[in-house]
Amino acid sequence: MKFATSEIDAIPLHVIDKSDLEDWCKGQEPAVRTWIESAGFTAEIGRVLVVPDADGRPRMALAGFGDTGSRARGRFALAAAARALPAGSYRIEGGLPAGDPETECLGWLLAAYAFDRYRTQTGAAAQLVCPEGVDARKVETIAAAEALTRDLINTPASDLGPDALEDACRDLAEAFGAQITVTTGDDLLERNFPMIHAVGRAATEAPRLIDLRWGDAGPTLTLVGKGVCFDTGGLNLKPGSSMGLMKKDMGGAATVLGLARMIMGLGLRVRLRVLIPAVENSVAGNAFRPGDILTSRKGLTVEINNTDAEGRLVLADALSLATEEPSDLVISMATLTGAARVAVGPDLAPFYTDDDGVAQALGEAASAVSDPVWRMPFWEPYEKMLEPGIADLDNAPSGGFAGSITAALFLRRFTAGARYIHFDIFGWQPEPAPARPKGGVGMGARALLEALPKLLGA
Q1: Terminus of the chain with fewer CB atoms < 10 Å: N or C?
Q2: 195 and 414 in contact (C-beta within 8 Å)?
Q3: Do the Cβ atoms of 346 and 352 come closer than 8 Å?
């Protein structure tokens, strides 16, 4: 997932807007025009054509860029061409008709991704020479971070439980000189992380809280990612149809690790902290039960009305820790609720914030880098839905209404008034699309990276 290292022998690639095809063809030699007309090339997104020279070798290649309407319906138009072109090295001639070259080039690199741990698979074989004006280091760094996120989400729980997730964090820390500490098993009780312990204690691999720190200058940024490596639902056992994708329930952790890799790889001036409560929500004789009341790190008591609403419990203890020291911005990311999927579907990353400036900066950044997000409300009138009476909070309010909002309100109770953003992501691409094969996918991380200078005033 890197750019081609040399322009030597690179095939000229003309990226053509559908509306410009006729005029472009008029400027070509008759043999080229005839070849294009005979092939029926229409410049639709994903359509490519290799034009040979007199000896049959590639003289140039054409890549369709569609039109404004077709591009608005998708993302990464250039990546669609990358998948369709034959293996080789290509250099873009004349630039792109529209769009952001950096984002389109990132899409090309991401098109090369394939999860091949268990089966031989390949992504796009066509390589791209980095165009002039595009920051190759930045694009390659983002692509590598996205690949990390995807690999983690795609790996099944048989090979990615809390132990392996900790190993991935340690590998990342070692690669970038970060500090890491891990609190595991019964030490969670001694150090006052009771809800992380309660959710994960029934699993074979011990629950833990992973704490990574990097950077010694600049504003402080704390990322908190839900690391539920598999979610059976606990004693409120999920049906099989709902359990099949639960390897991705650590998608929040995978996404914040990808974002952290971007930040560290680009050397941003920031003091970064990453907190990941890593657990498996399993079933055993010591599993936490419906009706139990847990006392959180913050001291708030929580009535358990559904053991399948466990992600907010482990995040609550981690968020309490995150806000015990000053931070300019706290961000949580989690595959938290099915309600968010019903509300916005699999392609949008819904987020919550009380800060209109944060929301505007995120929206603008998301549009700029084709990483769509959607603001959701911390709706104050729903706070009463969280209060069951027997305890301070209810982890699963009855009624079925506003599930994503009430989950976000629950988490906000543990942030001590910090400047806070919560993402309720899906972390999964249900159908293949340009630059995004079916499987695990990062959501919101690139938008956050783009917005960080405004969010942190850096």
Answers
A1: C
A2: no
A3: no
Residues forming a β-bridge with 4: 129
Q: How do beta strands 88-93 and 126-128 pair?
A: parallel
What contacts 24+ positions apart, CB below 8 Å, involve 285-292?
Answer: 285/202, 286/201, 286/202, 287/201, 287/202, 287/234, 287/235, 288/198, 288/199, 288/201, 288/202, 288/234, 288/235, 289/235, 290/235, 290/236, 292/198
Place of tokens 């989690």: 334
Lookup: tokens for 363: 């929206």
170, 238, 375, 454: which one is catalytic?
238
Please report which confidence band the pLDDT of residue 458 belongs to, taking 50, 70 and 90 as the band edges: low
Q: Quick one: how far is CA 24 from the chain centroid?
A: 38
Residue with token string 């056992």: 237
pLDDT of 6 reads 87
- Which residue among the candidates 91, 248, 273, 312 is catalytic per the annotation? 312
Q: What is the per-residue pLDDT across 109-133, written as a single tens digit (0 to 9) for each?
A: 999 999 999 999 999 999 999 999 9
What's the pLDDT score for residue 22?
95
Domains and CATH numbers, the chain: 11-112 (3.40.220.10), 140-456 (3.40.630.10)
CA dist list (Å): 385 to 224, 242, 291, 334, 345: 25, 25, 17, 21, 24
Catalytic status, residue 298: no
Instruction: Check if 312 is active-site.
Output: yes
CA distance 355 to 456: 13
Structure token pair of residue 452: 């960080």
Longest dimension (CA), the chain: 83
Tell me the C-alpha to C-alpha distance, in Å, between residue 116 and each of 49, 154, 229, 233: 29, 10, 20, 29
pLDDT in tens, 334-343: 999 999 999 9
